[in-house]
Amino acid sequence: MKRNLMSYLGILIAVTMVLTACQPAAAPVPAPANENQAPPAEKAPEPQKAEAPVAADKKITVGLVQINLSHPFHIGEVNGAKEAARRYGFELKVVSGEDDVNKQIQAFENLVNEKVNAIAVNFIDVKAFAPAMEKAKAAGIPVVCLHSKADGCATVFGFDEWYTGNEAGKYGVEMLIAKNGSAKGKVANLQGLLGQGLNEQRTGGWEEIMKQNPEIEVVAKEPTSWDPKKAVDIMENWLTAYPDLDLIYGNSDGLTVPASNSIKQAGRLWDGKSGKAGEQIIVTSVDGSDFALEAIKKGEMSSTFLYAPEYTGFWKAYVPFKIAMGEKFDPETKIKGTLVTTANVDKILELAKDQKEKIQEFPFEKPLPEIIEIYMKK
C-alpha cells in the first residue's frame, strides 16, 4: 500500500510539472512608438525577460551620463532617473562630464569598463564619442543616445525639438503682433551648446518660423554652453547693442530666466500692452522648469515649453533598463511637450509640483501629453 501511494505521488508530480511547462508565456510589452514617447499604460509595463541579454536573477545596472550636474534641468532629470531605478529595482550610476567633453568620454568609458548593462548619454560633442561608442559595442553594452544621433545607438531618445522650436516661434510671432501691431520686430536667440542636436533643432525650428515673416529680423544668436552666467553676460551686451530689441528666445529656462532678470533690472520687460515696439522685450523659452513657470505667473516671461525634467529623467533611465532586459525600440523615440503661457500655467505648475513632491506615485509611465491632459481637466 505504501509503495502504491508513493507511485501515485510520483505520477501526480510529473503531471503537474508538464502542465506547468505548458502554461503560455506572458505577452511582450510593445516598445513605444517613435511619434509618441511612451506606452500609454495604466501601470508600469513588464519587461520582456525571455529575450533579456542578462541573467534573470542578476541585478541590472544602468549608467546615465549627463553634460553636467549643475543645470537645474539636469538635476531634476537625475531625480526622475532615481525614481525609475527605485520602481524597477535596478542600480543607477550617474556621472557627468562637468561641461568637459574629455571628462565626459572618460566617465562613459569608466562605465563600459565597469560592465554596466546599458548606458544613456547626453553628449557634449557627439562626434568626439566615436571611439568610445566602439568600445561600448565591443563590450556588448547598448547605448541610448540622448538628443543626438551617433553610430551604434540602440535608440535615439529625446524631444521633438524641431516641433518645439516651431511652436515657440509661432507663439513668439503672436506676441510680436500683440506688441507691435503686426508680425515685425527684432529678435534674438540665446543658444545652448553648439553642435548638440537638441540645441541646433530648437534654434532651427524657431528660425524657420521667423524666416516666414519678412519683417522679423533675427539680429543675434549666441551660444552659452548652457551656462547661466554666460547668458546673463550676453543679455547685458544685447541690452546695449540692440536698444530696439523686441523679443528673445532662450533654448533653456536655465538660460532664459537669468537673462529675463537682467531685462527686468533694466526696466525693459514687456508689460503685455500694445504699441511698445522697440521699447520692451518679450521673453520666450524652453524646458518648463518650475522657476520658469513661476516667472510666467509673475509676468516676467511670456512662455516656455514643458518638458518636465523629472519625467524626462525617468525615461532616460527607464529606456536603457528596458533595452537591457531585451526590449526593442524604434531608431528614434521622441517626447512631445506643450507650450506653457499664462493661459495654462496654473495647471502646469500643479503638475511640476507633483513630480517633485509626489514623485513615488507620479504616473511617469504614461505619455506626457496624456498626463498634461489629466491636469488640464482638474
Helix content: 40-55%
CATH-defined superfamily of the domain at 49-158 and 309-335 = Response regulator
CATH classification class of the domain at 49-158 and 309-335 = Alpha Beta
Poorly predicted segments: 1-56
Q: Report the sheet with the most strands, covering strand number, pairing sense and barrel closure.
A: 6 strands, parallel
Task: Please report the number of helical segments.
Answer: 12
CATH topology group of the domain at 49-158 and 309-335 = Rossmann fold
Would you kindly provide a written description of the structure presented here, covering whatever features stand out?
This protein has 378 residues and is an alpha/beta fold. Among the domains are: 49-158 and 309-335, Response regulator (Rossmann fold, 3-Layer(aba) Sandwich), CATH 3.40.50.2300; 161-286, Response regulator (Rossmann fold). It is 44% helix and 16% strand. The protein contains twelve helices and twelve strands. The chain has helices spanning 2-21, 72-88, 101-113, 130-138, 161-180, 197-211, 228-241, 253-265, 290-297, 309-324, 345-357, 368-376, and strands at 61-66, 91-96, 118-122, 143-146, 153-159, 185-191, 216-223, 247-250, 282-284, 304-306, 332-335, 338-340. It has a six-stranded parallel β-sheet with strand order 2-1-3-4-5-11, with helices on both faces. Helix 2 packs across helix 10 and helix 7 (228-241) crosses helix 8. The longest helix is centred in the N-terminal third of the chain and has 20 residues, at 2-21. The chain is globular, with a radius of gyration of 25 Å. The chain starts with a helix and ends with a helix.
